[in-house]
Protein: Cytochrome P450
Amino acid sequence: MDSETTHLWTLLTLGPGLAAAVLISLNGISLILNIYKARKIGLPYLIGPVSSTNPFWHATHTKFNWIIQKYGWDGLKLSCLSWPLEHRHRMAEKYGLTEGPDWVRSRKISSAPLNERNNAVVWEKSIGSIEELLEKDNKDGLPTKIDFLDHSMSILMAAGLGTHYSGVLSEGRTYSSRQSLEIVIRGLLPLYLFPRFLVPKRILSAYHDFGEYMRSLVEIEKAEVASHENGIHQTKRSSLISALVSEYLKSHSLDETSEKTKVLAKPYTNTDVVGNLFLLLAAGHDTTGNTLKYTFSALAVYPEIQDWLYEEISAVVNEFGWDYKAFPELVRCLAMLYETLRLYPIIPHLFRHTIAATNLDLNDAHELDSRVPSSVDLPLGVYTLVTLGSIHTHPLFWGDDGLDFNPKRWIKHTEGQVPREFLQSPAPKNTFFAWAGGFHTCIGKKYSEVESLATIARILYSYKVEAVPLDGESVKETKLRALSVMEDAVISPTRKIARPDDFSYRFIQRDPQG
Structure:
């Protein structure tokens, strides 16, 4: 064997071991630096084998997450995105855990069409979609089933994009718009982590199809906006895509030498339009659709809550019909939505990152528990993970029944001869973050409330929700099985029921005579 071959063989033999040694050394240095930072901050800390922000870890660990949660140590459990779903406030009690001009512009543009006029459209489309689904599914007399993700997509397409969702494949496409969106959402990490030739073909096909769907919608909208500006169409459409396209056209119509152009962060591009459409479609479709799945699962488990809601719905519909004016009167339905998101937050974490040294005021928490410092100093580059499963159930905020499902906790009554119900959080301020909070509050909060309440009210007005028992199963056993399934969740990328086939419910038409 000549010297060159010997060197090559040595490199091939030692290369993987050397790379592993370098990786372990770098991780060790990072661990030491992080321990130093944690001690300097003064908060309790845990040591895990992998960073909780490692994207490759999150792309792979879900396959064996149940083993980690059952047998792993606390540091390993905390590296999994699903730990707040498993342990809620118990982990917090044990350890005492308590952006730029482009982002601002995108938020402003995206917020514009999410107004009362559009909310009325969301209400109307939600009612119509449910009536269509119920009529279609009930023709053969079988118990009705509803695909809430399909329902949510149809509302988004109508109110957000100003178009109709049929679910039918377009010529030359492998997937429908909804199918491609769902596959891309679940394939985000492989798309982000790996070169294209390593990404599964199914994800790449969906990625291509979704891009084509969005680009075709953008081109259609450009023509619509241009026809409005030329006086061909007198009514300007109020939809998400029209706002994004209008910004694109405005940004490209400015004189490059003008002062207004100079102050813009950068021109709005086709990529910006399609990217924002993807983010808002993914957020609106996945979150609201899965929220409704949890809501109706809970209703199937607690039939007495259905009766309580029906009492309100029937009174409101008798007065307002299915007009948008009924929305603010559905206080109990809103409490049902809030209680579902309190115990089953679809976005279980709020991620934040310090871009400068920051003093975090913890006075409110300190007043409730003296063990919590009144403030902590966070250095530059610290990632914080606000775990909603802890905050939403902690007995300090929600009482000893914080883990119980009880939407009535949100209801208060006005004083006077005819007391009226209104919604008010039973917990202190800043303890409910289903739509984030502060400057980062979700711009689609009202949109999701309108869609959810319209859906809940329209279904419960005509139908009861019934849990489907297994053969020989008692009512109590069915309830325990259902709750076990609802608790077993995965993050992909929002919260979803991990074993959806292990529990089902059906819709049974109400007796018209009551």
About this structure: The longest helix spans residues 3-41. Residues 83-98, 259-265 have pLDDT under 50 and may be disordered. The longest strand covers residues 349-353.
